[in-house]
Amino acid sequence: MQNAILLESIKQLCPENQYIVGFADLHGLLPSRWHNYPYGISLARKLDDAIIDQIVSGPTIQYFHLYHSVNDELNRKTAQIVSRLLEAGIEAIAIPSTVNDSDMKLDAEYHRTLRYVLSHKMVATRAGIGWIGKTDLLVTHRFGPRVRLSSILMSSPLADMGQPIDESLCGSCTVCVTHCPVHAANGMAWSIYRDRNEFFDPFRCMKYCREISAERIQKDISICGICVSVCPRGKIA
Predict the structure, then answer these.
(1) Staple 139 to which of 11, 63, 133, 179, CB 3.0 to 4.6 Å?
(2) CB neighbours (10 Å) of residue 127?
(3) Model confidence at 235, in pLDDT bands (50, 70, 90)?
(4) CA distance 200 to 185
């Protein structure tokens, strides 16, 4: 009964027309610091189609503001959910939505590898809400890549786990690959058996994103949005 109340509370906080919520078994997939939290909740917040459709050759100031406002919203939602889980006796911690790569809170390992301690995309694929596309975006069934992500780690399960997705469902589509201005992707498909660096160069992507962000919107941030905008899955959604 308690879990049903919590799930209804999450549903109210994250309405289905804007959110995808998935539940994941993360045993064996997390750093040792989180070994007491082997279950996860993945939140995917839909981005505004009108703003994403405006992205043609680089970021717009509207996309910049959307990027930050949705991150802030996700962080508020995860904090609220964690508070309710703790009140119900379930140990939980919120993993914030991805921060700006110039943020000093990011450690040396991130700057060396461009990998966060916890991958929101990994939690999402384990929850079954999407897969990794050819330009390293999470592609969801419902909204394509037009989402921002955050995660919650828990000590015990709250709902039935989603069916994990182990391989790309992009098929032969290479729209994002051909539209990338710096050819950061080589067209190989993701799977859990293939490391990101085998199909995507994050350093090449980030370098271009910083340059184009400074040029187009005069911001010290790494955003672009072209591959988000052109993905057929997102357009169909």
Answers:
(1) 133
(2) 26
(3) confident
(4) 4
Q: Which H or E element spans position 107?
A: none
104 band by pLDDT with thresholds 50, 70 and 90: very low
DSSP secondary-structure letter at 200?
B
Question: If you search the block for the tokens 């399960």, which residue do you land on?
Answer: 157
Are the CB atoms for 20 and 154 separated by under 8 Å? no
125 contacts 151 by C-beta, under 8 angstroms: no
Which CB contacts under 8 angstroms, 24+ apart, belong to 106-110? none
The first and second tokens of residue 200, run together, are 């995507």
Residues 7/159, Cβ–Cβ less than 8 Å: yes
Strand arrangement, sheet containing 92-95: 19-25, 39-46, 147-154, 92-95
Share of the chain above pLDDT 90, in %: 84
